[in-house]
Amino acid sequence: MSDTIKITVIDREGVSHELEAPTDMNMNLMEVCKSYELPVKGTCGGMALCSTCHCYVQTEHELPEMSEDEEDMLDQAFFVDDETSRLGCQLPINLELDGLVVKLAPESE
Amino acid sequence: MIETDILIIGAGPCGLFTVFEAGLLKLRCHLVDSLAQPGGQLTEIYPKKPIYDIPGYPEVLAGELVDKLLEQIEPFHPGFTLGERAETIEKMEDGRYKLTTNRGTVHAAPVIAIAGGLGCFEPRKPPIGNITDFEDKGVEYIIKDPELYRDKRVVIAGGGDSALDWTIFLADVAEEVTLVHRRTSFRGALDSVEKVMELNETGKIRLITEAQIVGLNGNGSLHEVVIKHKTAGEMNKETDHFVPLFGLAPKLGPIADWGLNIDKNAIEVDTFDYSTNVEGIYAIGDINTYPGKLKLILCGFHEATLMVQSAFKRIYPDKKLSFKYTTVNGVQGFDN
Fold first, then answer.
1. Cα of B206 to nearest chain A Cα, Å
2. Range 28-87 of A in CB contact (< 8 A) with B
């Protein structure tokens, strides 16, 4: 299982979920959350065009730099934290993310 | 009253293609959509994004696909009610359905096809506890008539094109314009950004960046907003209007109240003909759900095609329907 990583997702009620995510399936964090049926809508399908997968990254992992699309979308989102806010769909699952902890942002509508 | 054979709710790709398949069976269609232009998400959210899974098109821009669909259905002269949200449905005595929009436009048809995608696009409302108390009492999410702001004090929030464009426009209309944005950079068109910076430097508007509106105060109508700056903390600002411009987000909206079986924001259908639990009402495309459902334009086209066969039988129970290939028969449009 060396190609699987562990991720912790804290839901909006504060409950921690330990997820195992495959690194060879071209998945992103939003998709992993959805596959575990966590309350992440992923309305736009992963195009950084809605903010339903908005989350706060709680660990110091090296993350891909934010694209302009992601910055733009976070501009339209609410409850944004300048330091930790990311869109789950823009975080591809790879071995470097092993041990990542994220907290789901509140739903704004 | 607008009368047709199939009333399609939602003018996205799936709704548009329904017109074609219905037209081949000599059924007329009329589309209702809350957006001002046809195309749904494709034109509203990602017109410049490429799509790679439309058969026969290795790559097509979303906006281009909508243009092609409009061209394809043109021979069937579909009607459009745009910029209006389908609000209520009631069954009439003759068995047809009457659909009324939020602006009071009335339509009648024996068949309703809901191709509503993600739902209606509505403005995102900032999470300020009492914001609904001030709606139309100083808080507006959409600027309908700029004259409302003449010689008034306006606070606009947001960092996109609409926030920038309205800031520029209202600079000449309103007594005072303040633009509040969470970051120091803007994502809008470069010349709009430059114009806003220039207006700020010349004192025509006031730009407050790294700040958000976190509170609203007033007695009956809006009196002031509370602005929270990243480092400087909170300050109150007197204003007549607060206009938060944070784009649009889809909501299922009134469809949820039409007596249809709904599971997780999607309408349950029978995959035999994509009919809902209410006779004569069908649901196709992203808005429906069934075992194995995939939200793909491709699948919506398939659903639309099967759905119109069933719609035909409901509209003309005694007529024989023969399946024809367009290659053999061509496309016979309507004369008017």
1. 19
2. 43-45, 47, 49-50, 68, 71-72, 75-80, 82
Q: What are phi and psi of B247, to 5 degrees?
A: 80, -175
Sorted by where each starts, the structural domains of chain A and their CATH numbers stand as 4-104 (3.10.20.30)
B181 contacts: CB under 8 Å, gap ≥ 6: A75, B157, B158, B159, B163, B207, B208, B209, B210, B211
Question: The domain that contains B287 carries what CATH number?
Answer: 3.50.50.60
Domain boundary among B202, B221, B246: B246
Return averaged pLDDT per consecutive 10 residues of chain B, 336 residues in all.
Answer: 98 98 97 95 90 97 98 98 96 96 97 95 90 95 93 95 95 97 88 96 96 95 96 96 92 92 94 97 97 96 98 94 86 89
Mutation for testing the A interface, residue in B210, B213, B246 having most A CBs under 10 Å: B246
As a whole number of angstroms, the distance between CA A11 and CA B134 comes to 31
Bridge-based pairing state of the strands B97-101 and B206-209 = unpaired
B158's torsion region: left (phi>0), alpha (psi -120 to 50) or beta?
left
Partner residue opposite B118 with nearest CB, options A43, A78, A108: A43
Cα–Cα distance, B288 to B285 (Å, whole number)? 6
Contact B152, B175 (CB under 8 A): yes
Residue identified by tokens 């047709």 is: B4
ipTM above threshold 0.90: no
- Which residue in chain A has the smallest CA separation from B163? A76
CA distance B5 to B308: 10
